[in-house]
Design a protein that fits this description.
Belongs to the class I-like SAM-binding methyltransferase superfamily. RNA M5U methyltransferase family. TrmA subfamily. This protein is about 30% helix and about 30% strand. By secondary structure, it is of the alpha/beta class.
Length: about 350
Protein backbone atom coordinates (compact mmCIF):
# COMPACT_ATOMS: atom_id res chain seq x y z
CA UNK A 1 0.00 0.00 0.00
CA UNK A 2 1.32 3.42 -0.92
CA UNK A 3 4.06 2.18 -3.25
CA UNK A 4 2.20 3.82 -6.16
CA UNK A 5 1.82 7.12 -4.32
CA UNK A 6 0.89 9.91 -6.74
CA UNK A 7 -1.15 12.74 -5.19
CA UNK A 8 -1.60 14.41 -8.59
CA UNK A 9 -3.84 11.49 -9.60
CA UNK A 10 -5.82 11.41 -6.36
CA UNK A 11 -8.94 13.21 -7.62
CA UNK A 12 -9.20 10.88 -10.62
CA UNK A 13 -8.72 7.78 -8.47
CA UNK A 14 -11.45 8.98 -6.14
CA UNK A 15 -13.77 9.67 -9.08
CA UNK A 16 -13.12 6.13 -10.37
CA UNK A 17 -14.02 4.68 -6.96
CA UNK A 18 -17.18 6.73 -6.84
CA UNK A 19 -18.24 5.43 -10.24
CA UNK A 20 -17.50 1.87 -9.16
CA UNK A 21 -19.72 2.28 -6.11
CA UNK A 22 -22.48 3.90 -8.20
CA UNK A 23 -22.37 0.91 -10.58
CA UNK A 24 -22.47 -1.61 -7.72
CA UNK A 25 -25.47 0.07 -6.08
CA UNK A 26 -27.38 0.92 -9.28
CA UNK A 27 -29.49 -2.30 -9.24
CA UNK A 28 -30.89 -1.25 -5.86
CA UNK A 29 -32.01 2.25 -6.78
CA UNK A 30 -29.49 3.91 -4.49
CA UNK A 31 -29.29 7.70 -4.32
CA UNK A 32 -26.16 9.59 -5.29
CA UNK A 33 -23.40 8.63 -2.82
CA UNK A 34 -22.06 11.22 -0.43
CA UNK A 35 -18.31 11.45 -0.98
CA UNK A 36 -15.73 11.72 1.82
CA UNK A 37 -12.19 12.25 0.56
CA UNK A 38 -8.96 11.57 2.40
CA UNK A 39 -6.06 13.93 2.84
CA UNK A 40 -3.83 13.08 -0.15
CA UNK A 41 -0.79 12.36 2.05
CA UNK A 42 0.17 11.63 5.67
CA UNK A 43 -3.22 10.02 6.27
CA UNK A 44 -2.24 6.56 7.50
CA UNK A 45 -1.82 6.29 11.27
CA UNK A 46 -0.18 2.88 11.31
CA UNK A 47 2.55 1.25 9.26
CA UNK A 48 4.55 -1.96 9.34
CA UNK A 49 8.01 -2.36 7.84
CA UNK A 50 10.27 -5.33 7.36
CA UNK A 51 13.96 -4.64 7.72
CA UNK A 52 16.15 -5.48 4.74
CA UNK A 53 19.86 -5.84 5.36
CA UNK A 54 22.45 -4.85 2.78
CA UNK A 55 26.06 -5.46 3.84
CA UNK A 56 24.80 -5.74 7.39
CA UNK A 57 23.06 -2.35 7.34
CA UNK A 58 19.27 -2.36 7.97
CA UNK A 59 16.79 -0.45 5.81
CA UNK A 60 13.04 -0.09 6.06
CA UNK A 61 11.45 -2.16 3.32
CA UNK A 62 8.04 -2.77 1.83
CA UNK A 63 7.06 -5.17 -0.92
CA UNK A 64 4.66 -5.14 -3.80
CA UNK A 65 1.78 -7.52 -3.14
CA UNK A 66 2.75 -11.12 -3.87
CA UNK A 67 6.49 -10.40 -4.22
CA UNK A 68 8.64 -10.87 -1.11
CA UNK A 69 11.95 -11.02 -2.96
CA UNK A 70 12.18 -7.51 -4.41
CA UNK A 71 12.09 -4.97 -1.58
CA UNK A 72 11.35 -1.30 -2.01
CA UNK A 73 13.77 0.41 0.39
CA UNK A 74 12.37 3.46 2.16
CA UNK A 75 13.59 6.32 4.26
CA UNK A 76 10.15 8.00 4.40
CA UNK A 77 6.60 6.95 3.60
CA UNK A 78 4.42 9.81 2.30
CA UNK A 79 1.13 8.06 3.07
CA UNK A 80 2.11 7.55 6.72
CA UNK A 81 1.44 10.12 9.42
CA UNK A 82 3.95 12.88 9.98
CA UNK A 83 4.69 11.37 13.38
CA UNK A 84 5.68 8.05 11.78
CA UNK A 85 7.90 9.81 9.26
CA UNK A 86 9.55 11.85 12.02
CA UNK A 87 10.30 8.67 13.99
CA UNK A 88 11.60 6.47 11.19
CA UNK A 89 15.12 7.89 10.91
CA UNK A 90 15.97 8.41 14.62
CA UNK A 91 14.56 5.02 15.57
CA UNK A 92 16.58 3.14 12.97
CA UNK A 93 19.73 5.12 13.79
CA UNK A 94 19.38 4.15 17.45
CA UNK A 95 18.96 0.49 16.53
CA UNK A 96 22.06 0.64 14.31
CA UNK A 97 24.09 2.22 17.12
CA UNK A 98 23.07 -0.17 19.90
CA UNK A 99 23.41 -3.95 19.34
CA UNK A 100 20.95 -4.64 22.16
CA UNK A 101 18.30 -2.82 20.13
CA UNK A 102 19.40 -3.77 16.63
CA UNK A 103 20.66 -7.36 16.76
CA UNK A 104 18.37 -9.66 14.76
CA UNK A 105 15.70 -6.98 14.52
CA UNK A 106 13.53 -7.92 11.54
CA UNK A 107 10.34 -5.84 11.76
CA UNK A 108 9.16 -2.45 13.05
CA UNK A 109 5.49 -1.59 13.60
CA UNK A 110 4.25 1.97 14.16
CA UNK A 111 0.88 2.99 15.60
CA UNK A 112 0.14 6.71 15.96
CA UNK A 113 -2.81 8.98 16.70
CA UNK A 114 -4.14 12.25 15.32
CA UNK A 115 -3.04 13.84 18.59
CA UNK A 116 0.58 12.72 18.06
CA UNK A 117 0.93 9.79 20.44
CA UNK A 118 3.04 6.89 19.16
CA UNK A 119 3.54 3.23 20.00
CA UNK A 120 6.36 1.28 18.34
CA UNK A 121 6.85 -2.49 18.37
CA UNK A 122 10.30 -3.97 17.62
CA UNK A 123 10.23 -7.63 16.52
CA UNK A 124 13.27 -9.91 16.86
CA UNK A 125 14.56 -13.27 15.65
CA UNK A 126 16.17 -13.82 19.07
CA UNK A 127 15.00 -13.95 22.68
CA UNK A 128 14.87 -10.58 24.42
CA UNK A 129 14.96 -10.08 28.19
CA UNK A 130 15.78 -7.50 30.88
CA UNK A 131 18.97 -6.44 29.13
CA UNK A 132 16.83 -5.23 26.21
CA UNK A 133 14.62 -3.26 28.59
CA UNK A 134 17.38 -0.91 29.70
CA UNK A 135 18.37 0.11 26.18
CA UNK A 136 14.74 0.35 25.13
CA UNK A 137 13.83 2.66 28.00
CA UNK A 138 16.43 5.18 26.90
CA UNK A 139 15.10 5.06 23.34
CA UNK A 140 11.47 5.40 24.45
CA UNK A 141 12.31 8.43 26.57
CA UNK A 142 14.40 10.07 23.86
CA UNK A 143 11.66 9.70 21.23
CA UNK A 144 8.68 10.17 23.58
CA UNK A 145 7.04 6.90 22.52
CA UNK A 146 5.56 3.78 24.02
CA UNK A 147 7.92 0.93 23.10
CA UNK A 148 7.27 -2.82 23.01
CA UNK A 149 9.65 -5.65 22.19
CA UNK A 150 8.52 -8.96 20.72
CA UNK A 151 10.30 -12.23 20.09
CA UNK A 152 8.98 -15.77 19.81
CA UNK A 153 6.75 -16.34 22.84
CA UNK A 154 7.85 -13.11 24.54
CA UNK A 155 6.45 -9.61 24.84
CA UNK A 156 8.33 -6.89 26.71
CA UNK A 157 6.16 -3.91 27.68
CA UNK A 158 8.10 -1.03 29.21
CA UNK A 159 5.15 1.06 30.41
CA UNK A 160 1.88 0.31 28.58
CA UNK A 161 0.82 -1.51 25.43
CA UNK A 162 -1.62 1.11 24.21
CA UNK A 163 -1.98 4.75 23.24
CA UNK A 164 -5.05 6.97 23.44
CA UNK A 165 -6.66 8.47 20.36
CA UNK A 166 -8.99 11.46 20.50
CA UNK A 167 -11.57 11.80 17.73
CA UNK A 168 -13.85 14.79 17.27
CA UNK A 169 -17.34 13.94 16.06
CA UNK A 170 -19.97 16.66 15.75
CA UNK A 171 -17.94 18.95 18.02
CA UNK A 172 -17.64 16.33 20.78
CA UNK A 173 -14.35 14.62 21.68
CA UNK A 174 -14.20 10.86 22.18
CA UNK A 175 -11.20 9.04 23.65
CA UNK A 176 -10.20 5.57 22.51
CA UNK A 177 -7.65 3.20 23.96
CA UNK A 178 -5.81 1.67 21.02
CA UNK A 179 -4.03 -1.53 22.00
CA UNK A 180 -0.92 -2.89 20.28
CA UNK A 181 -1.97 -5.63 17.89
CA UNK A 182 -5.66 -4.70 18.02
CA UNK A 183 -7.66 -3.40 15.08
CA UNK A 184 -7.96 0.36 14.64
CA UNK A 185 -9.16 2.44 11.71
CA UNK A 186 -5.98 3.36 9.79
CA UNK A 187 -7.15 6.71 8.41
CA UNK A 188 -8.08 8.92 11.34
CA UNK A 189 -9.37 11.90 9.35
CA UNK A 190 -11.69 9.75 7.26
CA UNK A 191 -12.74 7.81 10.35
CA UNK A 192 -14.01 11.06 11.91
CA UNK A 193 -16.01 11.75 8.74
CA UNK A 194 -17.38 8.20 8.78
CA UNK A 195 -18.51 8.55 12.39
CA UNK A 196 -20.19 11.89 11.66
CA UNK A 197 -22.03 10.39 8.69
CA UNK A 198 -23.17 7.42 10.80
CA UNK A 199 -24.59 9.83 13.39
CA UNK A 200 -26.38 11.81 10.71
CA UNK A 201 -27.83 8.66 9.16
CA UNK A 202 -28.91 7.28 12.55
CA UNK A 203 -30.82 10.44 13.44
CA UNK A 204 -32.39 10.47 16.92
CA UNK A 205 -34.41 7.56 18.28
CA UNK A 206 -36.30 7.00 21.52
CA UNK A 207 -35.77 3.27 21.05
CA UNK A 208 -32.69 1.03 21.06
CA UNK A 209 -29.78 0.07 18.79
CA UNK A 210 -28.36 -3.40 18.20
CA UNK A 211 -24.74 -3.29 17.02
CA UNK A 212 -22.84 -6.29 15.65
CA UNK A 213 -19.03 -6.39 15.23
CA UNK A 214 -18.50 -3.39 17.54
CA UNK A 215 -14.70 -3.80 17.78
CA UNK A 216 -13.17 -1.37 20.26
CA UNK A 217 -16.36 0.73 20.26
CA UNK A 218 -15.33 3.02 17.40
CA UNK A 219 -18.96 3.59 16.35
CA UNK A 220 -20.55 2.53 19.63
CA UNK A 221 -19.48 5.57 21.61
CA UNK A 222 -20.90 8.34 19.39
CA UNK A 223 -23.96 6.28 18.39
CA UNK A 224 -24.83 5.85 22.07
CA UNK A 225 -25.92 9.51 22.06
CA UNK A 226 -28.62 8.84 19.46
CA UNK A 227 -30.48 5.94 21.09
CA UNK A 228 -32.10 5.14 24.42
CA UNK A 229 -29.90 2.08 24.88
CA UNK A 230 -27.38 0.09 22.85
CA UNK A 231 -26.67 -3.65 22.87
CA UNK A 232 -23.20 -4.02 21.33
CA UNK A 233 -21.60 -7.36 20.49
CA UNK A 234 -18.07 -8.40 19.59
CA UNK A 235 -16.25 -11.75 19.61
CA UNK A 236 -12.54 -10.85 19.83
CA UNK A 237 -11.46 -10.71 23.49
CA UNK A 238 -8.90 -7.97 22.93
CA UNK A 239 -11.46 -5.75 21.23
CA UNK A 240 -14.05 -6.41 23.96
CA UNK A 241 -11.58 -5.37 26.67
CA UNK A 242 -10.68 -2.21 24.74
CA UNK A 243 -14.37 -1.39 24.19
CA UNK A 244 -15.09 -1.82 27.90
CA UNK A 245 -12.27 0.56 28.78
CA UNK A 246 -13.41 3.07 26.15
CA UNK A 247 -16.96 3.05 27.50
CA UNK A 248 -15.62 3.64 31.01
CA UNK A 249 -13.17 6.34 29.91
CA UNK A 250 -15.92 8.30 28.12
CA UNK A 251 -18.55 7.87 30.81
CA UNK A 252 -20.98 6.03 28.52
CA UNK A 253 -23.57 4.24 30.64
CA UNK A 254 -26.35 3.25 28.25
CA UNK A 255 -24.38 0.53 26.40
CA UNK A 256 -24.55 -3.18 27.25
CA UNK A 257 -21.53 -4.98 25.79
CA UNK A 258 -21.51 -8.77 25.35
CA UNK A 259 -18.92 -11.10 23.86
CA UNK A 260 -20.83 -12.99 21.18
CA UNK A 261 -20.32 -13.83 17.52
CA UNK A 262 -22.96 -12.58 15.10
CA UNK A 263 -24.44 -16.06 14.65
CA UNK A 264 -24.66 -16.41 18.44
CA UNK A 265 -26.53 -13.11 18.65
CA UNK A 266 -29.01 -14.51 16.15
CA UNK A 267 -29.43 -17.67 18.22
CA UNK A 268 -29.90 -15.67 21.42
CA UNK A 269 -32.43 -13.22 20.00
CA UNK A 270 -34.46 -15.97 18.32
CA UNK A 271 -34.46 -18.13 21.46
CA UNK A 272 -32.57 -21.00 19.83
CA UNK A 273 -29.86 -21.02 22.53
CA UNK A 274 -29.17 -19.53 25.92
CA UNK A 275 -25.73 -18.16 26.76
CA UNK A 276 -24.12 -17.78 30.16
CA UNK A 277 -22.53 -14.58 28.87
CA UNK A 278 -26.05 -13.11 28.70
CA UNK A 279 -26.98 -13.92 32.29
CA UNK A 280 -28.45 -10.86 33.96
CA UNK A 281 -29.21 -9.19 30.61
CA UNK A 282 -32.90 -8.75 29.82
CA UNK A 283 -32.93 -9.14 26.04
CA UNK A 284 -36.71 -8.87 25.98
CA UNK A 285 -36.46 -5.42 27.54
CA UNK A 286 -34.73 -3.94 24.50
CA UNK A 287 -36.85 -2.25 21.84
CA UNK A 288 -34.64 -2.22 18.77
CA UNK A 289 -35.62 -0.08 15.81
CA UNK A 290 -32.14 0.03 14.21
CA UNK A 291 -29.35 -2.47 13.69
CA UNK A 292 -25.81 -1.36 12.93
CA UNK A 293 -23.34 -3.72 11.25
CA UNK A 294 -19.69 -3.28 10.25
CA UNK A 295 -18.82 -6.84 9.17
CA UNK A 296 -15.51 -8.31 7.96
CA UNK A 297 -14.68 -8.37 4.25
CA UNK A 298 -16.78 -11.50 3.70
CA UNK A 299 -19.92 -9.54 4.56
CA UNK A 300 -22.94 -10.89 6.43
CA UNK A 301 -23.54 -14.64 6.63
CA UNK A 302 -26.99 -15.97 5.67
CA UNK A 303 -28.25 -16.28 9.26
CA UNK A 304 -27.19 -12.73 10.12
CA UNK A 305 -28.80 -11.47 6.92
CA UNK A 306 -32.10 -12.95 8.09
CA UNK A 307 -31.61 -11.32 11.49
CA UNK A 308 -30.97 -7.81 10.14
CA UNK A 309 -33.91 -8.10 7.73
CA UNK A 310 -36.21 -8.07 10.74
CA UNK A 311 -35.35 -4.47 11.76
CA UNK A 312 -36.97 -1.30 10.37
CA UNK A 313 -33.62 0.43 9.81
CA UNK A 314 -30.27 -1.11 8.88
CA UNK A 315 -27.10 0.97 9.06
CA UNK A 316 -24.37 -0.95 7.20
CA UNK A 317 -20.70 0.04 6.97
CA UNK A 318 -18.74 -2.10 4.54
CA UNK A 319 -15.03 -2.50 3.85
CA UNK A 320 -15.85 -4.55 0.74
CA UNK A 321 -18.56 -3.06 -1.50
CA UNK A 322 -18.67 -6.27 -3.59
CA UNK A 323 -19.92 -8.30 -0.63
CA UNK A 324 -22.13 -5.37 0.36
CA UNK A 325 -23.78 -5.59 -3.06
CA UNK A 326 -24.23 -9.34 -2.65
CA UNK A 327 -25.92 -8.76 0.73
CA UNK A 328 -28.12 -6.05 -0.74
CA UNK A 329 -29.42 -8.52 -3.29
CA UNK A 330 -30.96 -10.39 -0.36
CA UNK A 331 -32.13 -7.29 1.53
CA UNK A 332 -33.56 -5.39 -1.43
CA UNK A 333 -36.92 -7.17 -1.29
CA UNK A 334 -37.67 -5.80 2.19
CA UNK A 335 -35.56 -2.62 2.44
CA UNK A 336 -34.58 0.29 0.23
CA UNK A 337 -31.39 2.37 0.33
CA UNK A 338 -32.22 5.90 1.45
CA UNK A 339 -28.64 7.14 1.94
CA UNK A 340 -25.23 5.94 0.85
CA UNK A 341 -21.66 7.16 1.16
CA UNK A 342 -18.11 6.46 0.03
CA UNK A 343 -15.30 6.86 2.56
CA UNK A 344 -11.83 6.85 1.02
CA UNK A 345 -9.96 5.14 3.85
CA UNK A 346 -7.31 3.72 1.50
CA UNK A 347 -6.14 6.18 -1.16
CA UNK A 348 -3.97 4.85 -4.01
CA UNK A 349 -5.48 1.37 -3.68
CA UNK A 350 -8.64 -0.22 -5.06
CA UNK A 351 -10.02 -0.61 -1.52
CA UNK A 352 -12.85 1.60 -0.36
CA UNK A 353 -15.26 1.82 2.54
CA UNK A 354 -18.95 2.37 1.93
CA UNK A 355 -21.99 3.07 4.07
CA UNK A 356 -25.68 2.57 3.38
CA UNK A 357 -28.82 3.29 5.34
CA UNK A 358 -31.63 0.88 4.51
CA UNK A 359 -35.21 1.45 5.60
CA UNK A 360 -38.08 -0.99 5.44
CA UNK A 361 -40.25 -0.64 2.35
Amino acid sequence: MGLEFNPHNYDQQLADKRQRLVDLLAPFGAPEPELFASPPEHFRLRAEFRLWYEQGVPHYAMFEQGDKRAPVLLEQLPIASRRINALMGPLLDACKANPELGRKLFQVEFLTTLSGQALVTLCYHRPIDESWDQAARGLAEALDIQLIGRSRGRKRVLAQDYITETLTVDERSWHYQQVEGGFTQPNGEVNQKMLSWALSAAGHSERDLLELYCGNGNFTLPLSTRFRRVLATELAKRSVHAAQENLRMNGVENVTLVRLASEEVTQALTGVREFRRLQGIDLAGFEFDTIFVDPPRAGLDPATLELVRGYPRILYISCNPETLAANLTQLNSTHQITRCALFDQFPYTHHMEAGVLLERR
